[in-house]
Amino acid sequence: MAHDLGTLLRLSLGLSAWKEFRGSRWSLRVNPSSGNLHPTEAYIVAGAIDGLSETPALYHYAPDRHALELRCRFAPDAWDAAMAGAQDAWLVVLTSIHWREAWKYGERAFRYCQHDLGHAIAAVSIAGTLVGRHARMLPEWSARDIAALTGIDRDEDYVDAEREEPGCVLMVSPQPPGSSHATAVARPLIDAVAAGTWTGRASQLSEDHVQWTFIDEIAEATRGQGFSPPAPPAPPAQPAPHYPAALLLQRRSAVALDGRTPIDADQFFAMLARLMPAASAPFDAVWWDARIHLLLFVHRVTGVDPGAYVLVRAASALDPLRAACGRPFEWEPAHPSLPLFALARGDCRAVAQRVSCDQAIAGDGCFSLGMIADFEGSLDARGAAFYRHLFWESGVVGQVLYLEAEAAGVRGTGIGCFYDDPVHDLLGLTGHAFQSLYHFSVGTHVDDARLTTEPGYTWESESMNQSPVASP
Both 280 and 187 in a single domain? Predict the structure, then answer.
């Protein structure tokens, strides 16, 4: 059990490599992050595990050492009561430290933290498949309950340290998401950790801070009270993609793309097919139906005309999205089995670059895209707390795109800096029915030969193919 938990964490949230240039050395992680700043923290709640604890316990994951830091031991009967029928499951709880992004990006930090958390959700779900487990988000858990479970509401443990914002709870279990045991009861666990034995304190990141009150306000406005479990969506069943450990560890964010090399149509369509909702990892980790759709700028795909396309990831969104677009697009079906539609054909490299904060990487790839959210209707139906979920879904989609690019021999990069209004103007969108949330580019990367690369941990081989065990 400890070995499997270690493998899960290593292949989802651990260090993937070290880079070095002229005496400067920095780490990369399996889960991507805006600016490589990594605001996402992870906690594990589990029953007794040989080699870790003889009782149920809460741990904090420290990726720099690939170690589990004990935070709280609590009574076994509480674990049994809360996890009846699923005592062999683990709870992976994700939180965010806004300051890790805010010191560099200011107000944009909030959405970057949500992107990153979505990537982490997908990374945990995909890594779970390699140890025979399924991950599913538990919507019933409120922000307050998540804070109490993880101890991030313990003022005495955060003296001078930056506070963490509750994210979500994932159950990682041998049972699939649709099973009768795919749940966990909050109150017994919260009461148990409150009465448990605590240890450790948070470390301070910076002595000086800039107070970004906007981030505090949006965080407060979007804290969830928990969602009643809806009827699960019924996307098509398909086998989970097989991403071997080596592929998960080799994922990188491209810094530059060559602007010349194409991919072929089969590769392109295969990537898009993997981005469609499915009853397999990582999309079965989320509890809502698809709300993210893709505005694609095709530049260099052999057999596909350059131009702007839309991939509509939920059939129910096609007519509303088409009606919301105030420009006379073609809307011509562009694939026999994918909901892909050609809007306008022609060279769109300049416009792709322009809407992505004038970054060349958006025009130099084989294709780039903007993720368009079914925004206003989602918030009207589920409240302000669902705002975060839209960004989480964009991160889940982005993580699959990263891995599909790697598997195809190219590379992707998430683009958090983009111009919202020009994207909306391009489509003729008005109001808030649909909103741009995240951009991405895929192409042939340009390696920087000046950088040296080392494994994420000294105890790993150069091949990075081993499955390590979590440290207690």
Answer: no
Stated pTM of the model: 0.95
**In a domain? residue 281:** yes
Please say whether the dihedral angle defined by the alpha carbons of residues 272, 275, 276 and 280, taken in this order, is positive or negative: positive
Please answer whether residues 78 and 189 qualify as being in contact, where contact means their C-beta atoms are separated by less than 8 angstroms. Answer: yes
Together in a domain, 9 and 79: yes
Same structural domain, 177 and 261: no
- Number of domain units in the chain: 2
Q: Among all chains, which residue has been given the structure tokens 């994951």?
A: 61
In this predicted structure, the answer to whether residue 86 has a pLDDT above a threshold of 90 is: no
- Are 237 and 176 a contacting pair, CB within 8 Å? no
Closest by alpha carbon to 267, among 295, 302, 307?
302
Number of Cβ within 10 Å of residue 349's Cβ equals 18
pLDDT at 337: 96
| Residue owning tokens 């170690």 | 67
Domain around 180: 2-221
242 in any annotated domain? no
Coil, strand or helix: which one is 341?
Answer: strand
